[in-house]
Amino acid sequence: MDIPGTLREPADLEKYRGDWSGLKGGLPAVVYRPASTAEVAAIVRSCRAQGARITVQGGLTGLAGGAAPDAGDVVISLERLNQVEDFDDIGGTITVQAGVPLAKLAEIVEARDWYFPLDIGARGSCQIGGNVSTNAGGNRVLRYGPMRDLVLGMEVVLADGTVMPMLNRVVKNNTGPDLKHLFIGTEGTFGIVTRVVLRLFPRPAVRRSALCAVASFAQVAQLLKQARGRLPGLSSFEVMWQEYLVAAARALGRAVPLGGGHPIYVLVEAEGSTAPQMQEIFEGFLGEMLEEGVVADVIVAQTQEQAQSLWDFRDAIGELLKQLSPFVSFDVGIPLRVTADYVETARARLQAAFPQASHLFFGHLGDGNLHIVSGPHASEADQLAVDEIVYGLVAEVGGSISAEHGIGRIKKPFLHLSRSETELEVMRALKRTLDAGDALNAGRIL
Amino acid sequence: MDIPGTLREPADLEKYRGDWSGLKGGLPAVVYRPASTAEVAAIVRSCRAQGARITVQGGLTGLAGGAAPDAGDVVISLERLNQVEDFDDIGGTITVQAGVPLAKLAEIVEARDWYFPLDIGARGSCQIGGNVSTNAGGNRVLRYGPMRDLVLGMEVVLADGTVMPMLNRVVKNNTGPDLKHLFIGTEGTFGIVTRVVLRLFPRPAVRRSALCAVASFAQVAQLLKQARGRLPGLSSFEVMWQEYLVAAARALGRAVPLGGGHPIYVLVEAEGSTAPQMQEIFEGFLGEMLEEGVVADVIVAQTQEQAQSLWDFRDAIGELLKQLSPFVSFDVGIPLRVTADYVETARARLQAAFPQASHLFFGHLGDGNLHIVSGPHASEADQLAVDEIVYGLVAEVGGSISAEHGIGRIKKPFLHLSRSETELEVMRALKRTLDAGDALNAGRIL
After folding, report:
1. Same structural domain, B366 and B276
2. Among A363, A343, A341, which Cα is nearest to A351's?
3. Residue where a domain terminates, one of A282, A309, A336
4. A154 and A128 in one domain?
5. Residue B214 contacts residue B178 (beta carbons within 8 Å)
């Protein structure tokens, strides 16, 4: 299939099959790498005319297999749609094409003394369009919200090849349905995001970090409420249960901080100005939490190097995953008031079923996002049993089976645990309305 | 029409016609005041069976006439759906029925040492369901976002009478389309919101306010960027052009603060803890802005009474509207970098066309929301001419014709200025999907 004015580049089809922890996509029939919205639209129209199915690809860093093609799919990779189109220094907005990598965007923005707060492990390869389509989260959702809250406007190519511009640049816009939410977090199933207008923030001059040891989850919740109210610029609240911290220290070949004998650890980060009072407030707050017994022990980083060395434990997850492979990982959303029970019960059930494996708990608890990694689990049957323990409990407490990674292909069988039958029906009705021929990313989510 | 188990209360049909600055609704055929979701669903099903049209009503405080019934409509008023159903002190969430008034909610929340930040002039009468359906904004959007950002989950009765529960309680939930956005800001045209789960925040211990006089809009933009980066807890950034402040002072019978001779005034508010360093930072920041010449003059409130007396000027809008009646008012969204030009051009065109009338500019500029009031304008033709000047310019600069009040019936003729034909088509397709019979709030928005 040739599309006038676009590039057909089948050179290395294999590369576009991708690989998602064991899930490999089928071999696409053809890969297009359009360099403009008009080219995307032309490809979509041509596919429609021929009844071809489309898989949309960004940086191939998703964790739910949403970008895995079916064999014979037309792949549209947005990697060449990578231009910055507008930078508004006054209002603090940037307009970019969907294929711009996140790290490149952050660099461009910071060079002009602004700040784009989304930050995830895949920053070097992941693309803005993928961040939008999966509603990416990361470490600073507590302060800035997920990608959904950072998008002001966008342009989308619909399933019939129509280009829908909605390049809003203002924070408040109440002119009927806010259609961008149809395309945020829907993993390319309702349309192809080609351009995005993003909100920027003033660049924080410094970051302050501390690692707190806490005796119980009730005290973690207390620390969170106090920190939200009293720590200006609170940007991260990362919780690590003891087993996680001990395993991370081992993976890093370092001593466990604060002795490692406490049940829970919290990495607290606040962003702000260089005003000396900000440091006083940060240290004063933690000192008070220590005095009041909310926190059992604390390390306050005095330099950026010390801060990084605390963050190393949180960032050690990449290394840990290699050691626990083949692992099963989760990013569930759990209401704070049932988190302690959830962790205790899930851990007990996992240990009873798989006493030889490691079961690590950690997460962005400031926004209810709990990560669990369990492994190694060699057989598919074991992996499924782990899924059933973790997701079954999520359904029991009314949580979400995916707080940030999305559903894709991998979590589809469990979607009904988080969404009612009526919701699923409305989702299907939306899909029929926006993509009657099921041309875009068929078989994902629903 | 009688619905088993519900109250039919036609006692005072006249009251439910409402009155929206000149727009009076038609007389409804009947008014139902259901006290449960099941009753709402039964009424909707019964209307559907009989082909009756429904107007949904909350506190009747909307400014776009969205709650105005057509003659013969079935009105569903949610005023008796007014229970608080759950309060989560640990996670900071509250679950309420849609008819709870905003002020009552705020009171209940603050009594338990939490905080719900949405605050608008109509707080005493407006209801949470209406706040959701219109995506209400107000003075603290800069820090907390509009209602859209404060809703975690909801329950909706769809046009066919199906109850759709999506009572999510976690901040991060990436399990397919986030369906709540179909019902936020869509003014009851896609479904009837019956229950809402809201995010709460720690209650700020103090608020600090200052009034700054500024020489140019370029400096307002500079002050905003600096304040966002350096003023912890920045919660309001309310801009008032000179004519507004002078008129407000006259309406209040008070002297114009800071002499009244500056072109623009900014009311800055920051929320935070009682830590003495916070006051130092607030005053230090404003002192520095003064030294650097970003700000020409400033009053820092030293007590809550002084703060209130500064806010009186912003809140004088209610009084001003009475004096300028019959007025035409706007809440447009304008990108910051074109705001200065927009105001200058709009003012010049309005003055040229209506030299006898007052044209006042003010707004929540921290989020691009500009309010304009022009009056008195006795004739409908003059009012339309004012609309055309203001909205025509909005379209020229790529702004939004409604930043917070919504479209309803009143702004429908201008919707095409803010939304492309493709967007309007997708909106119509969504309406057909969710309410094929056009039963819910027909004739609003589209």
Report:
1. no
2. A343
3. A309
4. yes
5. no
Determine, yes or no, domain membership for B117. yes
Kindly state whether residue B18 falls inside one of the protein's structural domains. Answer: no
Instruction: Report the pLDDT value the prediction gives residue A24, as an integer from 0 to 100.
Output: 86
Query: Among the three residues A77, A101, A123, which one is the final residue of a domain in this structure?
Result: A77
Residues of A in contact with B411 (CB under 8 A): 175
* CB–CB contact B174 A427 (8 Å): no
B54 forms beta bridges with B74, B440
| Cβ–Cβ contact A437 with B under 8 A | no
Does B304 share its domain with B330?
no
Q: Where are the beta strands (DSSP E) in A72-214?
A: 74-77, 84-88, 93-97, 114-115, 151-157, 163-166, 192-199, 201-202, 206-214
Q: What is the pLDDT of residues A205-219, one digit of tens each?
A: 999 999 999 999 999
A26 lies in some domain = yes
User: Are residues A164 and A177 in contact, defined by beta-carbon separation less than 8 angstroms?
Assistant: no
Touching B: A residues 198-217, CB under 8 Å: 201-205
C-beta separation of B247 from B240 below 8 A: no
pLDDT per residue over A347-366, tens digit each? 999 999 999 999 999 999 98
**Strand B358-364's sheet: what is its strand order?**
B297-300, B206-214, B264-272, B234-241, B358-364, B369-375, B328-333
Note whether B86 contacts A: Cβ–Cβ < 8 A.
no
- H or E stretch including A310? helix A304-315
- Which range of residues forms the domain containing residue B376? 318-405
Number of structural domains found in chain A: 4
Helix, strand or coil, per DSSP, at residue B81: coil
Q: Is A8 among the domain residues?
A: no
Query: Is residue B339 domain-shared with residue B278, that is, in the same domain?
Result: no
Q: How far is CA A78 from the centre of its chain?
A: 19
ipTM summary value: 0.96
Q: What CATH number corresponds to the domain at position B334?
A: 3.30.70.2740
**Burial environment of residue B89 by CB neighbours within 10 A (0 to 12, 13 to 18, 19 or more):** middle
Q: Does residue B190 sit in the same domain as residue B170?
A: yes
* Nearest-angstrom CA–CA distance, A132 and A98: 9
